Every structure is written in C-alpha cells, then in structure tokens.
Amino acid sequence: MKLNDTDVLTLEHEKITKLLHSRKYFLRFPHKLEKEYRYHYQNEAAREFRTRGVIIFLLYVLLSLGIYQLLPASQVWNWFVLYSWVGSCVFVGWVLSLFKRFSQWFDVYTCVCCSLAIAITFVITVVLASGESSILYHAAMMYAVVIVYGFVGMRFYTATLAGWSGGLLGILVTHYIKHPIDWTILHRTYTFSSFLGMSLVFATDHRHRQNYLQGLLNAVQAKQLEVLSHQDVLTGLANRRYLDMVMQREWDRAMRHQTPLAIMMVDVDFFKNYNDHLGHIEGDYCLKLIADGIAKIATRSDDFVARYGGEEFFLLFAMTEEAQAILQAKRLLEVINDLAIPHPVSTISKSVTISIGLASTVPQMGQRPVDFIKKVDQALYKAKSQGRNGFVVAEI
Ligand SMILES: Nc1nc2c(ncn2[C@@H]2O[C@H](COP(=O)(O)OP(=O)(O)OP(=O)(O)O)[C@@H](O)[C@H]2O)c(=O)[nH]1
C-alpha cells in the first residue's frame, strides 16, 4: 500500500475550494454533493426544528392572545375556529420532527404544513378582515409568511414552494366560497412579505451551503495533515513513525487471533556506490522507482509497506505463513530485476538489486515485536554477506 490517499485528498481539496470560490453553487451543488448535502441538511434541519417548532408555537400563541384582545367580540369565535387550524399545522410539523425516521422527509412535511398554514391564514385574512381589525389580520398573515420563510429552516426552493402554493390554495378556496379579494392590500401584505421572506431564505440557504463546504474543506485538510504526518516525503510510502504504530497494532491483532504475521526487510545493494557514482539526485530517483516496485507486490488491503530509513524498506503481511512470504520475496526480487535500473558500479549485476530478510511468526505472550524485527534484520545482513540479490529466512 502506498499512501496514494494524498492524491485523492488533493483532488478533493481542489474541487471544494473551486466550488467555494465559484458563484455557481448558490442554491445547488453538483449532483453527488447535493445528494450528500441534502441528507446532512434534512437531519440537521429536523433536529433544529424540534427546538424552533416550540418557539414558533409560543410566538403563535402570543400573537393569538394579542389578536384575541383586539378583535371585536362578534368576530372572535370565527377567528378562533379558523386560526386554531394554523396552530394545528405547526403542531403536526413539530410532532413529525420528533421522529428521527421522518427526518429524510423534513422538506416534504414542512412544505405541506407551511403551505396549509399560509392558505388558512390567507383565507382568514380575506374573509374576516374588515374595518378597523383588517390591519390586524393582514399583519398576522405577514407574520405567518415571514415565519415560514425565515424560521422553519426549509431550503430556498422548498420555502418558496410552500409560500406561493399556500397563497394559491388560499386564492382557490376564496374563489370557491365566492368571496371577493382586495388585491391592492393583499399585494402590500402577502406579496410583499413573500418577497421579503424569499430574500431572507435565499441568504440563509446560501450561507448554510457555504458553511457546509467550509466544513468539508476543514475535514479534508485535517485528513491531509494526518496522511502527511504518516508519509515519507521522498517515496510516498508510510514513514517509520507510522510503521511503528502499524507494526504494534498488527502484532497485537495477530496475537489475539493467533494468526501468522510475516515481515520483510529490504535493502538496496551497493547503494552508496550508486550515490557516489551517479549523484544524490539520481539516487533519490532510484529509491522512488524501487519504492513503486515494492508497493506493487503489496496488493492486499492489509499489506503494508514503509520506508524504514535510508535505502531500507519494510513490508508487513498479516495472516501470512512463511511459505507465502517466501513467494512474495521471490516476486519482489523479480520485480526489482525487471525494473532494470542501471547500476554502473555494482559488482554483482548490471542493474540495481536488493537483499531481503524475512520471517513469519504467530506472536505469543511475552514476545516483543522489536525482537522479531531484530532477527529479520540479522537475516537481511546474512543475505548481504551471502552475496546479495537474494533472501534469507530468519529463524524465530
Ligand atoms: N540519494 C539518497 N541516498 C540515500 C538516502 N538515504 C540514504 N542514502 C544513502 O544510501 C547509502 C547507504 O549505504 P550503505 O548503508 O553503506 O549501504 P550500501 O552501499 O547499499 O551497501 P550494502 O547495503 O552493503 O549493499 C548511503 O550512501 C546514504 O547516503 C536518500 O534518501 N537519498
């Protein structure tokens, strides 16, 4: 495994930054992100509505009391019967928000409840408003419209749909009961407050999306930092610090499940000569090629490759017996030979070669990973002394 996550994270980082700085996403993200955003948003909005619903309901009760005190006695009963339907809509929306399994339907149920609440307020206003109390009804309708847009927590399109469909429903009902509509005053109240509400919810929706993108960006940056702290800069493999963590984790796991754990230590042959002859930059390039070659044989998700230091590499294979580890060592020697990186000053080959020490063990209580590594390191130097370009299995 090479820590290629960095490439994916860099791409992700670029994508989000671009989106954050573009003005295109105002109220809609690209398809996949929009889907994720909605999922996240609906859950959060439903959770917030559990508190907001109570506040809206209290405001509704306070307003009702205010209206009740100011209305002429002849209108109180009619108004009370009709207006209590608005309260019922708020209440139903709030009750639904208490059930987490309905969160994914937050947009739908709030849209329906708000649309009905506006339609009822609309009809009450048109039918009951007359004389001195008229202004009271219209003020209450404006209040309801602004609440729907600004406080419920719907996205721009849903709130707009709820606001205008509520008005349309109100008009249809008013026509149905054949009651005249005073369009002039209605435009000054309902239409005006609808546009006011739309600009409010537009700004909120946009800001919410911006915060969401910023949150994603922070998460990607945190992940990038984490990967960087685990990565060897030159080769892109895991670094020594990360190796120590993984080795301990895999050792403990293998001990718990009593499964074999194999490790391999790899050292480039005559690398000092290579560096001295071709220079440090060529040496770096050679190490990168070898790292890529080594990463090729660690194909399983549990396989782990790290740069142990200098021109030494470390491979870890969970649940791997000695015989399988030997096969891997043979494959690795082939891979490096196939790379055919010219080595003008090697006394054993025309190209760069490696030596390998390896072993597999089922860790037991009282054994330490550091001793296991030491034995494999000794096997590696045995491979060197036996002529290089080969492997030696350590006796555990
Ligand atoms: N270019 C480059 N060279 C490195 C790096 N890290 C270590 N080296 C060099 O690797 C060489 C290691 O040399 P030695 O440990 O003497 O081993 P060797 O020459 O490979 O000899 P054998 O291991 O016995 O085959 C040294 O010259 C180090 O300077 C690196 O990051 N880049």
TrEMBL record:
It catalyses: 2 GTP = 3',3'-c-di-GMP + 2 diphosphate. Pfam families: GGDEF (PF00990). Its cofactor is Mg(2+). Keywords: Membrane, Transmembrane, Transmembrane helix. One of its GO terms (biological process) is negative regulation of bacterial-type flagellum-dependent cell motility. GO terms for cellular component: plasma membrane. The chain crosses the membrane at residues 53-71, 77-96, 108-129, 135-152, 159-177. CDD domains: GGDEF. It comes from the Bacteria. GO terms for molecular function: diguanylate cyclase activity. Residues 259-396 form the GGDEF domain. Its EC number is 2.7.7.65. This is diguanylate cyclase. It comes from Aquirhabdus parva.
